[in-house]
Amino acid sequence: MDLQTLWFAAVTVLWTGFLLLEGFDFGVAALLPVLSKGDPAQRRADKNLMLRTIGPVWDGNEVWLVTAVGAVFAAFPGWYATWLPAMYLPFVLLLLALIVRAVAFEWRHQRHDAEWDATWTRVITGGSVVAALAVGGALGATTLGLPVGADGTRVGGAFSWVGWPVALGAVAVLAYSLVHGAVFLALKTEGPVRERARAFALRWSPLAALPLLAWAGLVVLRSGGVVSTVLWLVAALAVVGTWTRLKVDREGQAFLGWALVLLASAAAVFGAGYPTVVASTVDPAFDVVIGTASVSDYTLTVMTWVAGVGLPVVLGYQAWTYWVFRKRLTAEPEHAHA
Amino acid sequence: MDVLDIARWQFGITTVYHFLMVPLTIGLGLLVAVMHTLWVRTGRAEWLRMTRFWGRIFLINFVLGVATGLVQEFQFGLAWSEYSRFVGDVFGSILALEALLAFFLESTFLGLWIFGWGRIPKKLHLATIWAAVVGSTISAYFIIAANSWMQHPVGVVVDEATGRPRQVDFLAVLTNNTALAAFSHAIVASLMVAGGLLVGIGLWHLRKRKLAGRSTEDVDHAVWRRSVRLGGYVSLAAFVLVALTGDWQGKLMYQQQPLKMSSAEALCDTEAPASFSLFAFSKLGSNECDDVHSITIPYILSFLAHSDFSSPVPGVNQLQEQYADAYGATYPDDPSFGDKAGEPIDYTPVLAVTYWGFRLMIGMGMVSAAVAAYALWSTRKGRVPTSRIGVYGSLLAVGAPFVGNAAGWVFTEMGRQPFVVVPNPDVPRAEQVYFFTAQAVSPGVTAAEVWTSLISLGVLYAVLAVVEFGLIVRFVRAGITEGDTTPTPGIGGGPGTDDDAPTRPDDDASDDVLQFAY
After folding, report:
1. Where are the transmembrane segments (chain A) (predicted)?
2. A319 touching B (Cβ < 8 Å)
């Protein structure tokens, strides 16, 4: 395997890792108003419980996005410099959503004030939904088609990216994340929230997987081979598997099954798309491919060495974080947040 | 304004804003880690309370730094795609390695530190804050190495096929002398920010307590007193290092970017020996060096630039001619230069900005050092200052190193215009890599799009600044809260005890005092 292919695979892993990890914290945040029930105090306690499941990890999860974008820039500047300006406004929206979401997580409890708390909690939910839609839309566009011309410059103005690929990607990531968050909550909590989360996942998982499967299916139909077709089938079967595991209350297995849905779909999308990184809707001859978008072999070699040593260490301590916070959480009445 | 100007304003505003949070994160993170270490080693209650109080300010600020840092990584692509294509072989890999080696470390271990009280053994928990601090510092190194490569490109050759720089020596990029000087300067400047904060807030609390007749024997008094003393010493020591590293950086800049330095001195014509400008006045709105008149001190500039009192220092007028000869008097008549195509190139940065940016940076550092000296003097041998002017002045001066840091960056970045990648004079002209800011902007992006992002980010940043400032002020006024002063079981048993046990015996840390955020 040449270095460009290796880094295409690395970028795929980083984007998939981001969607897998940040996916459940997007989902949990989006489900706050859906899965909290009862009187206001009880609802607040439910929301606190849900937020505590992602509290220690959301920031580390978000670094996967930073690293994925960094790796795109580092390995394929031609991709970075085509994709980002072509979808200028959606990326700005993503940034705005991620900024308000991040500060809301930390600032929510800085005052003993129910209204202050409720406001920032709504910001967390809103920011997460918008961020999931924006990042999904951006990924949908780069894999399914963007109006770029011969020199990688967008044609058709500020809104020429608007179209069904963006809508499909956006809905796919949000829908996947919602169920992912629900399965995660079923796995990490005890009590009524766990029950509601499990019921939500059971009811919606088959429907929520459809846009993701459709997206992967379209890329496979356009340019896939045997391997990506098999991956697509694995993803579809994993949806069934997840559902049956949820049915018998095996949340851990359901979580793995739902993770497999994403892993196989993402591998199918990027694998079928390879070596194209931006599909042009103007003319297939204008597609941005890894061969022309990439940096020199020297730079790829340096990055391979550093990442080869660094990435296992990162994975090790991130896994350790999840181990430290592995306990199921239970709801408590109002407690002192100093 | 055209896309280029709007995009420059956007980059300037978002980056200066981001850099208000960054030095506080770096400097205060280090001091909080020191406080935490002292608590683990001595078991003294005041160090625990200091860790918690300053740790919380650190966290309120940290998250805004992280959030605004996200914008940085995207905007090279969003508005500056031609820059990204040009520097891709070097610049992107530094950012990616920063994310991989620094951001993961910082965010993961900070999460463990916040939520780890009572869940992981005491010494391991202490290690988490140090790991986060190391992450912040590595991150600073990488981003400054990336910036320094733009100031002084090394480790690359011009690729014959593309005309762009191709990396040939990664270690040279990481050990760029510009980066070593700028990094050490930025780190010690960050410590001045943190030191100034400890001094200003600590003095204010000490005075308030004294006027209210509160005890000077209790732990709270010790917290504020130690904060002032620690902050004062750190500030003063850091100021000395800021001056030394600044001098190092200045001497490099006289070799690498002589126009930046000569315009910082409003030195119009080459002088030997050269005089240092103390104060200048010029015609309003003029960027002609000859319109500027200075009050000067002889010999000093030669010394600052070359460590002797006689060497010549080149003037703006001569350098402008040299650069025009070497890099052209006008921009190439090429569409990639946009509105600037065929226009004359002004190699002199905006004189008012470089001249006053340089002086503001130095002046603010001096203000902060003077306040630190005052704080140490006025609290000597257990004294508590009650001077209204002294204490409120110190509180106000908390802002001085922030302004100094921002001014320093504005000077550095605007001083290298009209280049975004400045040619390295150590390399023969034919092998030099350089890029004009005018050709760096994204060609397909419209002015309306950049206006949209500039306005939306600007409004959001303004709102967040108000909220952050309000939160910090509110928290500082309240001082040490009840939660911070309640000793938790298993804590405070003195050094050596409970080293392997979690800091709290029960594993349910949900009501733990530092788990305020959730």
Report:
1. 6-35, 87-107, 119-141, 161-187, 199-218, 224-243, 255-278, 298-320
2. no
